[in-house]
Amino acid sequence: MRRKHARPIIMCSTETFRMYNALCTENSGQKKKRTGKREWVFSSRTPAFFLAAAIGIVNDKTVEGKKEKQLTRREYIVNHRCFEAFSQLIKSKFNLKTEQETIDKLVGFQEAGIRELHDEYHKTGKIDFLRIYRDVKSRL
Amino acid sequence: MKNFGPYKGIYELEFKKRDKRNIEIIWGTNGSGKTHVFKAVKWCLYGYDPSPKDKEPREASRKDAWECICGTNKEDQPPPDPYMYVYIWFEDTTRKETKRYLLKRSVRPRSSMAYIVNSTQIDIDCELTENGKTVYNAREKIESILPVAASQFFMFHGEDLRYMSQKHLEHTKKAIELILEAVTFRQGISDLTKIAKEIEKERDYEIRKVGDLSTIVKLKNDVAQKIEENEKDLEKGKEELESTGKGVVRIEEELRSRQKSRMTMSRLDELRKQKSQLEDDERKFLLRRDNLINQLPSIVILPEMIKILGKKQERHEKREKIREHILQLRGRLELADEISKLEECICGHEITEVERRFIKGQQMSIEKEMKKLKSELFEEDPTYYQLRETIASIKSGDPDFETLQKDIVDLNLRIDELDSQIKKVEGHLSGIEEEKIRELAKERDELKKKEGEIEERMRTIERDKKDNEQKKERFIKLIKQREKAYSISTALDDQLDMTSKCIEAFEFVVARLSTLRKEQIMEYSTYFFNGLTNKPEEFEKIQIDDDYNVQVIDSKGNIIYRPGLSTGEREIVALSFILGLKNASEKVAPLILDTFFVHLDESHYSNIIRELPKFADQVILMLTDLEYKNLKERAPESFFESVNHVWKTNRIQAEERSELMLTQEVALHA
User: Fold this and answer.
1) Cα nearest neighbour of B391 on chain A
2) Residue ranges of the domains in chain B?
3) Parallel, antiparallel, or unpaired for β A69-73 and B539-544?
4) What residue in A sits closest to B303 (Cα-Cα)?
5) What ranges make up the beta strands (E) of B518-578?
6) Disulfide-capable partner of A112 in A56, B123, B156, B439 (CB 3.0 to 4.6 Å)?
7) A52: pLDDT confidence band, cut at 50, 70 and 90?
8) Can you tell me the distance from the alpha carbon of A110 to that of A63, in angstroms, rounded to the nearest whole number?
């Protein structure tokens, strides 16, 4: 049955939810900056969501599965400065019409992208944004 | 007199008393000018015609003079001769030395006037000489000889007499008060009352000022006590300041002995400060980094977006090509249409049927081609332009990741370096020494702060003390003022008492004088009444009661009220009363009686004729021709022995003037 209204909460898999917790300060239950080598990478889940989705799109990888955890509020995603560009790309690439379809597609991509980010974080203790940036620049 | 009233030219009347002859007679027909002689005397003396009907004596005016100069003429007609005067020569024989007076009152046109038409164009002069010497205040002098108020009892018309006989009450009171000069007293009482009120007001004001003296004294004492407290506080503050200063000196000495350690400490503090600044910078860099991370996803998908845009652009270019082709065909079709409508070619040759058919064929083939192209033309993708704009904006906002990363690395290096320096310095300075120095410095700072607070408190106390001293001075000044006000109010109280006593004295004098004069007036009036009445056995005396009612008491002691008297009797009572007032006024002057024999019966008439020479030193009678005829017939021979001059007034109607002349009777009786 088709839903009449857009869903206010974006859901994700349990695994993804844990990865986000590892990478972001949000919902960590710790207000202080983490001491030691490993530190929080993202200030909130929204930039992590978009970067993961971007990596998923670039690698053209999606992960489908059961979504049972509440990741973030829909309005945080929709009102982010990157959403317009992602929306145009997804709609053009996959010939989608509605915003909900676009978000659903993005959720699939971010599921794949966050795994890559988490892998890197797990191995190196940080995420090398400069490397990501340089990779993109080389492709342009 | 000259040009007075109806009299044109100069007339001279002599009323000089000779031997026992003290009666002057002026007679004439009605309207011949008798009364104008009477008026001339009054005008010369007072400048106007005072009458018992006047409520108050008034100032003479030009209007009064204008009435005299116009006489019987209408007011709007200017007098032919504007120069008028009346001179009176008279003697005052009441004193040891006889004084001779000449009173001149004259009217003349204003210097610039050729002729006069109203009262504003005349000037009045008045001059009085006493034994040939000019008296500067003529009006006052005349008032002292015969006051305006008293003149009503010396010069009166028959009408005035009848008026007095009808309405006693108010005029009796007024007349008595005139004689008493009670107006002056009353004015004095009123002035004194006013003064008393002013004094009272001033005294109340002073008393009000004095009212809160005790409060001011209390306030002054309070302020003095505060000053004492301030002084104590200041002394205490000085002691505290001294002890704090000693403490500071002691700590400074101790700190000086630890000079080297202190220097190391200051270096350590500086390093820590620098580190905290760098940490602040780091926080700023982290914020910038977060911002760049937010932009990074858009950059990551940028190659994908460019790829999609490329496909969209190909499609867009293909569409544009078809559109351009269609436009070209449309141009050609329009040109063919235009040519088909023409009759001949541009070069002048006529277009043949073959050529027309060729053009038609061309048109059809173009239309066919256009139809085919239009079917091929697809719709423009709306997202193409949006995508293009988005890519452009992402490119323009490209974050400077390289620089930021470099800055962060540099910053971390500097922080690490500072950390190592701090550790090194901390190693030099033992923990115990640092703690001691910090404690001493803290103690010194606290003592200095305390010192500053004590100094500030002392300054405030000094200010308070100064304020209180100023207040005290003000209160002392105020107390002095109040004491002065108190003495003034006491003096004013005395003055008020004195004024009240004066008012009481004035009132007593007025009451006493009034009683005395009333008795005197009653006595004189009764004397004249007994001589004039035809029933001397029926009436005993004339009485004036407390309400100033003039009453007649009969022989049985009963009061006879006015309605009980006949008109003639009432006039006799009025005449007696006036003569009584005249005598009571203690002034000496000729008595001028103008036509007052009208209502008198035979007996009253003869009584008056008999008593007339005794009325005053000199009597001037104004009589109508009928009265004069009666007089000649009825008066005894002895009466004419008292007559000095007889003047007759004549009216010359044709010339609109009157004249005065001595009659032959004078010769007969003189």
Assistant:
1) A85
2) 263-428
3) unpaired
4) A140
5) 539-544, 550-554, 559-560
6) A56
7) very high
8) 8
Render pLDDT for B262-279 as a digit per residue (tens, 0 to 9).
777 788 788 888 888 888
Whether A80 sits inside 8 A of B294 (CB atoms) is: yes
Residues of B in contact with A132 (CB under 8 A): 296, 300
Q: What per-residue confidence (pLDDT) applies to B145?
A: 84
What are the chain B neighbours of A140 within 8 Å (beta carbons)? Answer: 302-303, 306
Number of structural domains found in chain A = 1
Chain A residue nearest residue B304, CA to CA: A58
Q: Does B295 touch chain A (CB under 8 A)?
A: yes
Helix (DSSP H) and strand (DSSP E) numbers for chain A? 6, 2
Of the candidates A50, A91, A130, which has its C-beta nearest B297's C-beta? A50
Tell me which residue in A43, A57, A81 faces B301 most closely, judged by beta carbons: A57
What are the tens digits of pLDDT across the range B112-170? 666 777 778 888 889 999 988 999 888 888 888 887 777 777 887 777 776 766 655 56
> Model ipTM?
0.89
Report whether B31 contacts B40 (CB < 8 A): no
Domain membership of residue A2 (yes or no) is no
**Domain annotation covers residue A50:** yes
Residue holding tokens 């400074």?
A: B252
- pLDDT, one tens digit per residue, over B242-257 is 888 888 888 888 777 7
- What is the dihedral sign for C-alpha B46, B52, B55, B56? positive
Q: What is the DSSP letter of B616?
A: -
How many of the other CB atoms lie within 10 Å of CB of B228?
Answer: 11
A24 part of a folded domain: yes
How far, in Å, CA of B553 to CA of A56, rounded? 150
Query: Which strand (E) or helix (H) includes residue B502?
Result: helix B431-532
Question: For residue B313, which amino acid is it?
Answer: Q
* Residue B7 neighbours by CB distance under 10 Å: 21
A43 to B290: CB separation less than 8 angstroms, yes or no: yes
Chain-chain contact of B300 with A89 (C-beta, under 8 angstroms): no
Check pLDDT > 50 for residue B110.
yes
Q: Are B119 and B66 in contact (CB under 8 A)?
A: yes
**CB nearest A132 (choices: B298, B300, B305):** B300
Distances (CA, A) of B473 to B200, B219, B224, B455, B477: 31, 12, 10, 27, 6
Contact between A96 and A105 under an 8 Å Cβ cutoff? The reply is yes
Intra-chain end-to-end CA distance of chain B, in Å: 25
Choose the closest CB to B301 out of A85, A129, A130: A85
Structure tokens at B500: 């009240």
Residue A3 placed within a domain: no
pLDDT at res. B505: 87
Q: Is B383 part of the contact surface with chain A (CB cutoff 8 Å)? A: yes
- Choice between B87 and B667, residue whose per-residue pLDDT is larger: B87
Which residues, 6 or more positions from B514, have their beta carbon under 8 angstroms from its beta carbon? Answer: B176, B180, B182
- Residue-level pLDDT at B431: 63
Chain A residue with minimum CA distance to B297: A51
**What pairs with residue B135 in β-bridges?**
B128
Tell me which residue range forms the domain holding A15.
Answer: 9-139
Name the residue facing B401 among A47, A54, A130 (closest C-beta). A130
Cβ <8 Å between B383 and A85: no
Which residue of A lies nearest to B405 if distances are taken between CA atoms?
A130
Percent of chain A whose predicted confidence (pLDDT) is above 70: 85
A92 and B387 within 8 Å at the Cβ level: the answer is yes
Long-range contacts: B289-292, Cβ < 8 Å, 24+? Answer: B289/B404, B289/B408, B290/A43, B290/A47, B291/B399, B292/A129, B292/B399, B292/B400, B292/B401, B292/B404
B370 at the A interface (CB within 8 A)? no
What secondary structure does DSSP assign to B479-500, as a single string? Answer: HHHHHHHHHHHHHHHHHHHHHH
Quote the tokens at residue B441.
Answer: 């410095």
